[in-house]
Amino acid sequence: MMPDDLSLAERAAQVLTTADGREKTALSRHHAAEWFAARRGDRAPIAIGTATPPLHPARPDRPELLSPRDVPRRRPGSRPGQIALLHAVGHIELNAVDLHWDIIARFSHVEMPVGFYDDWVKAADEESNHFNLICECLEGLDSHYGALPAHAGMWRAAEDTAQDFMGRLAVVPMVLEARGLDVTPGMIDIFRKAKLPEVVAALKVIYAEEVGHVAYGSKWFHFLCGRHNLDPKDEFHRLVRTYFHGALKPPFNEEKRAEAGLPPDFYWPLAEDPIGDRGTSR
Ligand SMILES: [Fe+2]
Ligand SMILES: [Fe+2]
């Protein structure tokens, strides 16, 4: 079969089985460009198709993956600490590339409006750019992705929700990516103080685009709740309690979460220090 005849699900599986980070993101961006060319009518249509994605995506030999408690912590005020922080972000972005293609391939048997694929392909393309941007920042600091150990277990959310499409939407975009909105302003501050404007610029791109990813999650979660006649808030709470390990950590970026269609009554009841408890303990 000519590679151009591949379905979207097969393209997704191809990204997932590519180990090298830069090769993975190049393939991801190629497939995204092809998808949008087809959607504009500039090439033959691409079918959604079906594919069986690997349970774990292919990854490069480096970085070495360690349990989070074994990953050394460094002070963000020092250059090695800044490099370690950037390396951790790069690892998250590479994981995010795989997560976005995985949801396309793994749930390709579920009938969805074409807009769902538009959103996820666009997000996968943006994650690929995020990884490349962070790689360039690391290289600008005489390091590279793979130079330091990284967290194992990043794929756990994907494994836990491999059979549950709505659980995947609840945990990945609406919990994990939303958490990114909470912590990114603090990271931007660290690199502003470190006088690394190219890193600040990269993180600002990431911050702006991640709002969209959370919004896609919320949009399609609500869509599926409507299809199955479920109350979105109750269902979100049930799924996060089922699949997410631990409580959500305030402070929350309420402004950006609101922009992404995530209201406070979705996340506060799942927080380790809910408003109600805080009120009574004072
Ligand atoms: Fe990202
Ligand atoms: Fe994202």
UniProtKB/TrEMBL annotation:
It holds the Pfam family DUF455. Residues 48-79 are annotated as: Disordered. CDD domains: Ferritin_like (cd00657). Signal peptide: none annotated. It comes from the Bacteria. InterPro entries: DUF455, Ferritin-like_SF, UCP012318. PANTHER family: 3-OXOACYL-[ACYL-CARRIER-PROTEIN] SYNTHASE-LIKE PROTEIN (PTHR42782:SF2), SI:CH73-314G15.3 (PTHR42782). This is Ferritin-like domain-containing protein. It comes from Aliisedimentitalea scapharcae.
